[in-house]
Design a protein that fits this description.
281 residues, alpha/beta, 2 domains, four-stranded antiparallel β-sheet, 9 helices, 13 strands, 30% strand, ABC_transporter-like_CS, AAA+_ATPase
Length: 281
Amino acid sequence: MIEVENLIFSYQKQKQTLHGLTFSVSDGEIFGFLGPNGSGKSTTQKILTGILHGYDGSVHLFGEPLQNQQKNFQEKIGVLFEFPYLYTNLSALDNLNYFASFYPAKRRRDVNELLSMLEFKKDFMNKPVSSYSKGMRQRVSMARALLNSPELLFLDEPTSGLDPQGAVLFRNIIEEERKKGTTVFLTTHNMMDADLLCDRVAFIADGKIKAIDTPKKLKEKNSNHQVEIEALYQGKRSMTVIETPELKAGIPFPYDEIISIHSKEPTLEDMFIQYTGRGLT
């Protein structure tokens, strides 16, 4: 679906933003492009969506060079920008009906059904976007990204501005789109989104890719193979860390009740810091 080789881009002469990125995204994959603000992830997405030009290297989408894509290229992709791009004097319905007019009828999804799926408040559908909260604007922007039944979906910080319930809803919707065969390119610094959604992730920092793998393998490769056991014995709580192989013979200490057992494997954010030497904020 996406093939990128030695991608180089500069906003200013002699000051590169992207330093030779190489990666690929398979059909039907949710691919996470993870990095802090200023790392180059949004720049990469803008190149892949045809917004930024003047890059060096090779970029192929749908099996064709990006520069050779026909007019229907925009009909096959959906984009959710980090900062919602909506006409604030228009309502959610007016915005979506306007954007839907750019696509052929066979690709358009029902605007009301999309807003209902995104749990948009019905009493705000005809009110101007200027009166919406950030989370409400994010819902309309996601509806806009899905309007044309995209084969390739670009999402930039999709759960930004959402409460926990809204974030869960968005993650479920993204999973449903993938089940339909949609490929998803997800740029984010939200490690929870990446860990729960992505088949593979790429860590990017300072315009360079530092690692690419599945979240599970990245964590397993760097696991210390320990578990933390909280237990109750003779009325007293204790916390014990043991090596995982020790569990084969059973829990090696006396207890009356096991309260919890937790793996000590690193988090995805721990791995990002290890590979890049910096945090996500």
